[in-house]
Amino acid sequence: MILIFLGTAGSGKTTITASFGGYLEKNGNSVGYVNLDTGVKKLPYKPDIDVRDIITVEELMKEGYGPNGAIVESYDRLLSHADEILSGILELDEELDYLLIDTPGQMESFLFHEFGMRITSGLKEPLAAYLFGPDILRRPSDYCFVKFFAIMIDLRLGTTTVPVLNKVDLIREEELSSIRRLLEDIDYLNARLKLDPSMQGFLAYRICSFLPEVSPPVRVVYASAKTGEGFDELETLSYEHYCTCGDLT
Amino acid sequence: MILIFLGTAGSGKTTITASFGGYLEKNGNSVGYVNLDTGVKKLPYKPDIDVRDIITVEELMKEGYGPNGAIVESYDRLLSHADEILSGILELDEELDYLLIDTPGQMESFLFHEFGMRITSGLKEPLAAYLFGPDILRRPSDYCFVKFFAIMIDLRLGTTTVPVLNKVDLIREEELSSIRRLLEDIDYLNARLKLDPSMQGFLAYRICSFLPEVSPPVRVVYASAKTGEGFDELETLSYEHYCTCGDLT
Fold first, then answer.
1. Is the Hydrolase keyword given for this protein (chains A, B) (predicted)?
2. How far is residue B126's CA from residue B160's CA, in Å, rounded to a whole number?
3. Which residue among A105, A158, B54, B153 is least enclosed by CB atoms within 10 Å?
4. Cα–Cα distance between B108 and B112 in angstroms, integer?
5. Any CB–CB contact under 8 A between B154 and chain A?
6. Residue B249 binned pLDDT confidence (cut-offs 50, 70, 90)
7. Could you give the ipTM of this predicted complex?
8. % chain B with pLDDT above 70
9. Could you tell me if residue A181 is inside a domain?
10. Among candidates B2, B231, B11, which has minimal Cα distance to B100?
11. Measuring CA to CA, which residue among B48, B58, B165 is closest to residue A62?
């Protein structure tokens, strides 16, 4: 089973790759780790495949690139190695129970770059976990943004995508229950959006009203890479996805 | 008038800021330049406001951060300066005909970070130009992705967003006319999507069928920061947006 962790820089991909992997191993599974981030300095897990063996952002910066240019250039250069990386991943997946893929620090290096599509399109039924933090959920329209963003990932990479609210250990109980309601109860979210008189609120309302028609309501996972909360749910989802090929309603 | 250039690293934001600004100045306009990219090394324009006066990614990397961590940290630190940056922008906007804002190298540092929302929500009727290159348009579903991504920017930042296909100088004439048809003729795009038997194709078809209901068909600009192609259209759009407050159908 292949699980890809995706999310913006700082969303906790690397930490959850290590801690969820540790959880799976403790439960008796064999687990492989793939690092696709050319910019990470230290990893809290031992990667079986590591793109930094081919190229790193820091090397490119020493060649004179700025940080943004170096990130883009690193994936341009990895493109010619995409087939060998993919074969390595497929081989590991045959041998092991779980394969966890930690993606580039900047999500756009994966979503918008040919490299990300080359890797994901070669995988058999991968499940993507789209990590986001509570900090991006400030207004009702942000909930609509997050839900649609998961669908955008599906559309771009062809993966089934589960939204994972990470860092729930940072949220108080009452706040979490309000977040859960806005993420799970589409009628409630729409009622809240209807009260927003801004153009943004109106756009969010139209987009969200349409959500159930575009995509079935995929479950949201509430996780903490720190405390292990939600790991049982993530394991169940990975397994269900593997058995049912993508139906996670 | 404020025009914000947005797009992934390498989409040409900085180059078009300089060359479109030069074009506007040549036509007798007074133009101001704002750089919000903490990671850029050299700018081809002279910024009136430059976030690198406050913090740079390279400084943070010298403190020990990796490139991704340094990018995130730079915007975390800029957050406490958001009000002063915003006042500076509003003051310049009063004095000048055009104000061009060049955003962070990594688009997600702007779209997903509180800093981007703080800046954009304080601006009066800004127009955002969402730059993308022909390299991300490989399959019909990618056209759907790009069109919806512009709406996602609207939703997140509350800006009116114009999709700008940049680097058209790199495309052959026949290729460009095929791209234009897929970007502009939604019925044609839907007919193509209907032929795609993959899950991804089916999702794209459902999303695209719904597009006209969510958002009126905004015009697409075909531009080249190198040759100046499309600059007249971009100028017209900025002006129309300013006069009609957002109706760019």
1. yes
2. 7
3. B54
4. 5
5. yes
6. low
7. 0.91
8. 98
9. no
10. B2
11. B58
CA distance A49 to A88: 7
Q: Higher confidence at residue B116 or residue B202? A: B116
The CATH number of the domain where A87 resides is what? 3.40.50.300
Window B:82-121, CB contacts with A under 8 Å? 105-109, 112, 114, 117
State which amino acid sits at residue A229: E
Q: Band of the pLDDT at A248, cuts 50, 70, 90?
A: low
Please tell me the distance from the alpha carbon of residue B169 to that of residue B223, in angstroms, as a whole number. Answer: 8
* Interface probe, candidates B42, B65, B108, B137, chain A, greatest A C-beta count within 10 A: B108
Structure tokens at B172: 């052959």
Query: Do the domain assignments include residue B17?
Result: yes
Which residues are bridge partners to A131 per DSSP? Answer: A7, A164
The region that residue B132 occupies, defined by phi over 0 for left and psi between -120 and 50 for alpha, beta otherwise, is beta
Which B residues 18-37 touch A at CB under 8 Å?
37
* Nearest CA among A13, A185, A182 for reference residue A105: A13
Quick one: pLDDT band at residue B71, thresholds 50, 70, 90? Answer: very high
Residue B193 included in any domain: no
Q: What is the token pair recorded at B73?
A: 């940290």
Could you report the per-residue pLDDT of A145-198, keeping only the tens digit for each? 999 899 999 999 989 999 999 999 999 999 999 999 999 998 999 999 999 888
pLDDT band at A247 (very low <50, low <70, confident <90, very high): low
Report if residue B202 sits inside a domain. Answer: no
How far, in Å, CA of A229 to CA of A169, rounded? 8
Q: Where are the alpha helices (DSSP H) in chain B?
A: 13-26, 57-62, 67-78, 82-95, 108-111, 114-121, 140-157, 173-184, 186-194, 199-214, 231-244
Contact B104, B9 (CB under 8 A): no
Report the domain count for chain B.
1
Range of the domain at A138: 2-173+218-240
| Average pLDDT value over all residues in chain B | 93
Residue in chain B closest to A37 (alpha carbons) equals B68
Smallest CA-to-CA distance from B58 within A176, A38, A65, A171 is with A65
| 3-state class (DSSP) for residue B10 | coil
Q: Is the pLDDT of residue A246 over 60?
A: no
